[in-house]
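Discrete fold record:
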Amino acid sequence: MIAAIVPIHNEEGLLADCLRSLKGAAADPELAGEEVILFAVLDDCSDNSAAIAAAFGARLLISEARNVGRARSLGAQAALEAGATWLAFTDADTTVPADWFSRQLGHAADVVCGIVRVEDWRDHPASVRARLQAAYVARDGHRHIHGANLGVSADVYREMGGFLPLVVDEDVTLVRTLEEKGARVAWVATPCVVTSARSVGRLTGGFADHLRSLAADLLETSQQFRDLRGSAPSLP
């Protein structure tokens, strides 16, 4: 059995698209009928997220910690108890491709670290998009770690330790720990998921904060350039 684990904090605007994509991936014929169960970890939610998750048949888990590391850990533990052999993690503001599960399994690794793509840049200037794309390695062999596109063998997760209760970088810490303990990590460009580029995220230090920091750096660089031009001596 494959488990899809989604931590959720007030995501009623984007959650349905995420769960719909997961249900589509669960119907991939390449899985040959292998069961996929959705685990929705509702972390301090006060909106309609629970009802949306229930409508998609997800198993609901409740956390009040407002801590993404604890939420992912809670989902993973429930999945292990249900008999999952593979743990697939994504985020509630993310959609996965139709072959997401089969692609992860096809890499025959203990851990699969995939990449992310942004399609809707309406909240950011073109310069932020250009800066991110210039620095982002979107090919096999990358070293990006995204909780929105992460797969882990249940055996390895159980034996080597799971997520720590961290409010940020819980995904990075897990993968680094598993790698140090000898897990086989596949750094692959497929499967690729589509994630949100919203300017206000659900946690400090997440992808939204990263995009805002890029925008701030670009603004500062632009201001410094204008200051230099203003202070330059005029030509005779």
Summary: The chain has eight helices and eight strands. Residues 218-236 have pLDDT under 50 and may be disordered.
